[in-house]
Amino acid sequence: MRLLSILLEAVTSPKAIFLTGPSGAGKTTLLKQLNLQGFETINVDDTYEALLKASGFGTDFKKFTPDQIVQAGKFMSQARTATKEKEAEVISNAKNIIIDSPGAASGPLLKKKQELEDLGYDTFMFMVVVPVMTSLDRNSKRDRSLPPSAVIKNWEGVFKNIPVYQSEFGPNMTIINNSPEGENFEFDPNEYVKRYVKGEDKVVGKPKTPEEEAKKKKDMDELFRNIQQLLSQKIEFDPFPSAKSKLNKFLTQ
Fold first, then answer.
1. Looking at domain 2-38+95-185+235-252, what is its CATH homologous superfamily?
2. Residue 107 has pLDDT above 70, yes or no
3. pTM for the whole structure
């Protein structure tokens, strides 16, 4: 009840911005460009990387020993707990908040949106997207990179949810295309297999059975079809100045 009273007494409603987009979209860089004052950012990766650096491990997973990989997993658990505690504290004090997450899973995000709105928050989504190959390329250059298969599924999840988010956020949503100049959204499955799948297959592990290989190929073919279908949908991107103007309007309402 105390939290509800604080929110109701506020001159303007606190703001919650969901900053979403696939891996390598450039959300961190964009956040700096927006230069939002008076916001607390919630991002489990920030806490996780801080723990890794404080331990002396660094963030280059390719150089980790098996023991360090195990410990890194424990650090992620700690990071999730710390991030939840920070988020709870920010919300209990009715502070403006930025929730930085890919948005590949709509259920948890929309649940959080409703929870915040029930507490008196106004909500907005700022989505940053890039072509799938750009997402893969940028990820491969990071120290703490994800497996290509995880990156491409993350990209698929984000794009699949665009119509859902547009329906839920309405005018309080903007999407910008943060791809390199001249890069288009075409996707070549053969190029993906050549550059990324063969590299993953070289990772040491238990050999796959013929049945497992067949399932993997079937799943991959379905993923490729889904991506091509998603690329056929028409998405209206806002130029960055227009997106920023839309956000500023939200912040002052």
1. P-loop containing nucleotide triphosphate hydrolases (3.40.50.300)
2. yes
3. 0.83
